[in-house]
């Protein structure tokens, strides 16, 4: 079963994610998964196992297990290579032993100091905060991605971990539209606004962390796994399936592509056996109701900076600024159309009783008018242009103006 992307290429709806897959296990897992029917593999330069994946794929082709044209291979541009897109892509192709990629994604919407092609560094400054490169815009990175398509090195290009504002912005500046946005989404982090926004604009959503990261994210980030939720236990019983199968099936039925990772052979099989049943509407609705708006993958742990929190801060500052310009009694109303992280109406209610969530802040691109906010105490800590990027790229105040 496959989803047709906006450029006509087909992407299998279940793939195998290879993050945190030990190099020594990769060969057997890839070969076995191909035997089970997997045709889609989700890799990344930053997973530091492209060479092992390449070895396994090469063996699969040589032995006639599968043909290159029957596989869908994704890999991703790391943050430290935004200024070296062509070289980074060629480096990944070499390691994967491939002539072309089916999909190349911008792994995160942030460029950091270059650490050498394919070295995938996440350098921190002396304060322990990610050393962000403010000289490369996401638009520049995207145009370099587009060049890869014209060069025939990649069939499709896409984005990853882009919120609704950055996605909207990418649609505005792109000549080649992103085919995919790969984001964390699972029953505890459903992000319906973002998913629907992407789908409405022809961008296929791939759900990374489709099992909520399960034991791995509990271990790494101390998060709660949706696989233990009683709702799923009951549904598993009802459908005579495992909890993981119910969760993956839910992902497929909301038209997202799922890329669960496992290092266990029996689970490879389990995670692929999701095509012989269908969740009834009332069960889809029941799962919809258990959303906790809960991110389980927390790169902030390593980066000393929480990209999502910055955006919340930015949004709140912006709303306060608007409120002060327009006057609390002007009947000013705000609704921020976005995924949960902002849940601005709720936050506003908690923070200012004078604001009532109704009007839409439409994201777009003013830039310099927010410079003053760098002095805001909430932002000083980050002292990077990331906040400005968020604001510059994301907030247009229609029909209001700050002038
Ligand atoms: N674009 C991005 O920034 C980004 C971020 C994160 C992930 N990803 C991609 O998404 C893929 C999946 O994400 P993820 O690995 O973080 O999370 P995940 O697939 O949601 O969960 C993986 C965890 O679930 C366990 N698991 C797998 N199948 C299971 C089953 N049937 N029953 C119970 N537990 C099961 C795995 O353990 P075992 O291995 O022991 O089975 C592992 O602990 C990654 O491999 C990567 O390709 C992308």
TrEMBL record:
Keyword Oxidoreductase: yes
Domain of life: Eukaryota
Family: Belongs to the aldo/keto reductase family.
Keywords: NADP, Oxidoreductase
Lineage: Eukaryota, Viridiplantae, Streptophyta, Embryophyta, Tracheophyta
UniProt-listed Gene3D superfamilies: NADP-dependent oxidoreductase domain (3.20.20.100)
InterPro entries documented for this protein: AKR (IPR020471), AKR2A1 (IPR044485), Aldo/ket_reductase_CS (IPR018170), NAD(P)_OxRdtase_dom_sf (IPR036812), NADP_OxRdtase_dom (IPR023210)
Pfam families xref list: Aldo_ket_red (PF00248)
Domain NADP-dependent oxidoreductase residues, every copy: 15-291
Protein name per its UniProtKB record: NADP-dependent oxidoreductase domain-containing protein
């Amino acid at each position: 079963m496959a989803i047709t992307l906006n450029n006509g290429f087909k992407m299998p709806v279940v793939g195998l994610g290879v993050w945190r897959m030990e190099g020594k296990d990769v060969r057997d897992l890839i070969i076995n998964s191909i035997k089970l029917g997997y045709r889609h593999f989700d890799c990344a330069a930053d997973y530091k196992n492209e060479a092992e994946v390449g070895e396994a794929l090469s063996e699969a082709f040589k032995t006639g297990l599968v043909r290159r044209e029957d596989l869908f291979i994704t890999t991703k541009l790391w943050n430290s290579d935004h200024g070296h897109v062509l070289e980074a892509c060629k480096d990944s192709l070499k390691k994967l032993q491939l002539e072309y990629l089916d999909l190349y994604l911008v792994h995160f919407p942030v460029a950091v100091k270059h650490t050498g092609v394919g070295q995938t560094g996440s350098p921190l400054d002396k304060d322990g905060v990610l050393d962000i490169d403010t000289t490369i815009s996401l638009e520049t990175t995207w145009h370099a991605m587009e060049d890869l398509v014209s060069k025939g090195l990649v069939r499709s290009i896409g984005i990853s971990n882009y919120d609704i504002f950055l996605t909207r912005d990418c649609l505005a500046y792109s000549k080649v539209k992103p085919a995919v946005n790969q984001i964390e989404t699972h029953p505890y982090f459903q992000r319906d606004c973002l998913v629907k926004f992407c789908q409405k604009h022809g961008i296929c959503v791939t759900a990374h962390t489709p099992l909520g990261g399960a034991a791995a994210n509990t271990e790494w980030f101390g998060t709660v796994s949706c696989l233990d939720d009683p709702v799923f236990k009951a549904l598993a019983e009802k459908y005579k399936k495992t909890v993981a199968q119910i969760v993956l099936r839910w992902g497929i039925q909301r038209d997202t592509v799922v890329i669960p990772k496992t290092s266990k052979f029996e689970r490879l099989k389990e995670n692929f056996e999701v095509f012989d049943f269908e969740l009834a509407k009332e069960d889809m609705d029941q799962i919809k109701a258990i959303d906790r708006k809960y991110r389980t993958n927390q790169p902030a742990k390593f980066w000393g900076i929480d990209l999502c929190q910055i955006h919340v801060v930015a949004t709140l500052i912006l709303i306060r600024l608007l409120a002060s310009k327009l006057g609390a009694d002007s009947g000013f109303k705000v609704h921020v159309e976005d995924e949960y992280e902002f849940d601005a109406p709720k936050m506003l209610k908690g923070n200012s009783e004078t604001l009532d969530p109704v009007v839409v802040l439409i994201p777009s691109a003013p830039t310099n008018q927010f410079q003053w906010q760098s002095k805001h105490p909430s932002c000083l800590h980050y002292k990077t242009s990331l906040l400005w990027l968020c604001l510059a790229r994301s907030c247009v105040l229609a029909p209001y103006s700050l002038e």
